[in-house]
Each structure stands twice: as structure tokens, then as C-alpha cells.
Specification:
This protein is about 5% helix and about 50% strand. It is mostly beta strands and about 170 residues long. About 30% of the residues are buried.
């Protein structure tokens, strides 16, 4: 995670799905790439850097946290292709959704696919950042096709760890 102004790390860490990554690791023709600020973590997860918290309202706890980075996997002589690029965490009243750039919109990546339903919990302070550790996730119906219908809607995926430095509401502001 990148550092916030007071030393708090910011970004999103996600392990995708352990069984999926294990399956990929057994593919003799697996090709993978991590780019645009994304990196592999020591715990076999992926880090996506915080790009913007401008659409997140710290007073209400609602809005969008935008992350950068691009993680791709290809195998089965190109028959399997999965891309996780530019994840956004959208927090609304009582729900949260992680979306990614729609691979079908490549190369512009101007469309999004809702990927995961994300557990909604209160944030905790981590230095000068807000942190949402170990948020449970499940696959959304719109994303089933991204995995060639191998996983059903509602299938648990790995939890998310999120940290973001946001503009805090000022005392006395509405």
C-alpha cells in the first residue's frame, strides 16, 4: 500500500479466490501480468493503489473509492482470460460493491462490471487513513460470465482490505 500523508498505507489488497489462483498455478501455459501500479503481495494477494477518494463523503461514509492497477491471467491457449483492472469500491446506504473495468471494453476500459458484493462495516482509524479490514465478499450475478460460469452468484471470494485517506468533515459542518 502506498503511504498516506501521516504514514498510513492506502490502497486495496485482495486475494481474488484462493482455489482459482491454485487452479491457475497448475496451468502449464499460464501467463499473468501485474501492471499500472498493482503489485503482488507476499501473501499471494494483489495490491491496487488508491487513485481517488474525491467521490467519497467522509461525513456520510458513502461514495466511491477508486483504485488503479491491472491484474490479468491467461491460460488454455487463450481460452481463459480474466482481467481485474481499476477496481472501484462503491459504498451506498447498507451495501457496497466492488466493480472493475469491463474487459469487453478493452482497450478504452470505459465500461464497468459489478464484480463483488462487499460486507458493509464501520471503518477504523489507521494512522491518518480510514481502514476497512477483512471485508467479506461474494460474486455478483453480473460477474459470473467473467469466470466462464465456473462460479455461481453468491460464491464467496477472498476478503478485501481497504485503506484510504479521505477529507474528514470539519467541526460544525453539515
Amino acid at each position: 500500500m502506498t503511504q498516506g500523508t501521516g504514514g498510513a498505507a492506502t490502497g486495496l489488497i485482495w486475494g481474488i479466490k484462493a482455489s482459482f489462483l491454485s487452479y491457475l498455478a497448475r496451468m502449464p501455459d499460464l501467463q499473468s501480468s501485474v501492471a499500472d501500479g498493482a503489485v503482488t503481495t507476499p501473501a499471494n494477494g494483489f495490491y491496487f493503489p488508491l487513485v481517488s477518494a474525491a467521490e467519497y463523503d467522509a461525513g456520510t461514509g458513502l461514495g466511491t473509492l477508486r483504485f488503479g492497477g491491472d491484474v490479468r491471467f491467461s491460460a488454455h491457449h487463450g481460452m481463459l482470460f480474466v482481467m481485474f483492472a481499476q477496481p472501484w469500491l462503491e459504498l451506498t446506504a447498507g451495501t457496497a460493491v466492488l466493480s472493475v473495468a469491463d474487459p469487453a471494453s478493452y482497450p478504452t476500459l470505459d465500461k464497468r462490471v459489478p464484480l463483488l458484493d462487499v460486507e458493509v462495516r464501520a471503518w477504523v482509524r489507521h494512522g491518518d487513513a480510514r481502514a476497512w479490514p477483512a471485508l467479506a465478499t461474494t460474486l455478483r450475478p453480473e460477474a459470473v460470465e467473467l469466470f466462464n460460469d465456473v462460479y455461481a452468484a453468491g460464491e464467496p471470494f477472498e476478503p478485501l482490505d481497504v485503506r484510504a485517506v479521505v477529507d474528514e468533515p470539519r467541526e460544525g459542518s453539515a
